[in-house]
Specification:
There is one protein chain. The chain is of the alpha/beta class and 283 residues long. It has one domain: TIM Barrel (Alpha-Beta Barrel), CATH 3.20.20.70. Helix content is 45%, strand content 14%. It contains 11 helices and 8 strands. The protein has an 8-stranded parallel β-barrel, surrounded by 8 helices. Helix 5 links the parallel strand 4 and strand 5. Bound molecules: 1,3-dihydroxyacetonephosphate. The site of 1,3-dihydroxyacetonephosphate has 14 residues, from strand 3, strand 8 and helix 9.
Length: 283
């Protein structure tokens, strides 16, 4: 199959009350593994690449490889730029055939964020490509304390309505107490805020920082309109554990073998996320 626009996946998820998991996938071996699991479970999902994936491969190389792998599987999936850093990077991903792009101007002033995303929509929409914006800022989990949101800034519902109307984004990433990375204390989601944002905008909502979210909070967030759940850390933790135990062997194996085993360690993690989000059997 070919990658589909992310909006198609999110539309179905919103209509039927589940969420689509979006995995940060750093290597083609990992993508092959996730595609296989998704096809077996008939679960739609989103492949995400960002600057970390582009350190050794350009967006065009990444997209070409991902599209080649995708041809071997029958499962609906989108290819998404996560946390796009600049208009140039977004343009490179559009030229490469990504079916969805995010420009992350969430740390910039409101007007700059709006102007950037409006430009991305002007480029992407004629190509049928989905656009994700972020308002409020989802920061890092290890900066959150009992007293403060750390480096996050919570999303204001009224501002979210103005943002979506002014930019034309197809999906909105929001900050409601979620954060990226490993939580050092349990996240406290502001569900009233989420419900108010849901009532204020008519596009699917995105939860960044999915890893470590308690199951009950995740289900409640999905019921309140989160249609895409971003997951990275859970996968890297599984891979790191696998690699550490391989390297600790008295007689370490041939390195490619160890790397393959470490990557295969994501299988139970992605299976769990497909179950948790309700994506299983939706394809
Ligand atoms: P986690 O690493 O916390 O799962 O967050 C991933 C993410 O939001 C990527 O955009």
């Amino acid at each position: 199959m070919k990658f589909v626009p992310m909006a198609e996946l999110l539309r179905d998820a919103s209509l039927r009350g589940y969420a689509v998991p979006a995995f940060c996938i750093w290597s083609m071996e990992e993508l092959a593994v996730v595609l296989r699991v998704a096809a077996e479970l008939r679960a739609p999902f989103i492949v995400m690449a960002s600057r970390f994936e582009f350190m050794l491969m350009s967006p065009a190389m990444y997209a070409d490889c991902a599209q080649s792998l995708m041809r071997h599987f029958t499962v609906p999936a989108a290819l998404h730029l996560d946390h796009g850093e600049s208009l140039e990077q977004v343009k490179a991903c559009l030229d490469a055939g990504f079916t969805s792009v995010m420009l992350d101007y969430s740390a910039r002033p409101f007007e700059e964020n709006v102007a950037g995303l409006r430009q991305v929509c002007a480029w992407a929409h004629p190509l049928g490509v989905t656009v994700e914006g972020e308002l409020g800022h989802v920061g890092k989990a290890d900066t959150v304390t009992a007293e403060s949101e750390g480096d996050s800034t919570l999303t204001l519902p009224e501002e979210a309505a103005r943002y979506v109307a002014a930019t034309g984004v197809d999906a909105l990433a929001v900050s409601i107490g979620n954060a990226h990375g490993q939580y050092t204390r349990l996240p406290q989601f502001d569900f009233d805020r989420l419900a108010a944002i849901r009532a204020a905008v008519n596009v699917p909502l995105v939860l960044h920082g999915g890893s470590g979210t308690p199951d009950a909070d995740l289900k409640r967030a999905i019921a309140l309109g989160m249609a895409k759940i971003n997951v990275a850390t859970d996968l890297t933790v599984a891979m790191r554990r696998g690699l550490q135990s391989e390297l600790a062997l008295a007689q370490p194996r041939w390195l490619p073998h160890s790397l393959n085993l470490a990557v295969a360690g994501v299988i139970p993690v992605v299976e769990r996320w497909f179950q948790l989000t309700g994506a299983v059997g939706r394809a």
